[in-house]
Design brief:
With 97 residues, the chain is of the alpha+beta class. The chain contains four helices and two strands, in the order αααββα. It is globular and about 30 Å long.
Length: 97
């Protein structure tokens, strides 16, 4: 089933916003075709050229039932199962809410 991916990197790509700048609320709520926070499915084109390690990881993913993730400022990723409640609780407890 198609759902919004919710990835800020695609919004940044669609508006040409570098990672050093904050996204505006209007950009996050826009109908830009790269807004995967709002629109379901994949963006219309690739947003980057992945390296071989990324291609291998996509072709042979580690087994798991993750659906949500948080990337902390120290670049550590935390992954969550399909429990949206656990994801929201984590975000709120760690100042990402």
């Amino acid at each position: 089933h198609r759902m919004p991916l919710g990835i800020d990197a695609t919004v940044r790509y669609g508006f040409h916003v570098p990672g050093t700048k904050s996204l505006l609320e209007s950009q996050l709520n826009s109908d830009n075709p790269y807004n995967t926070r709002k629109l379901p499915g994949l963006p219309p084109t690739p947003i980057a050229n992945p390296g071989m390690a990324s291609i291998q990881a996509a072709a042979h993913p580690v087994a798991g039932d993750w659906l949500y993730f948080v990337r902390k400022p120290d670049k550590v990723h935390h992954f969550f199962t399909a429990s949206e409640r656990a994801f929201v609780n984590y975000k709120n407890a760690h100042g990402f809410g």
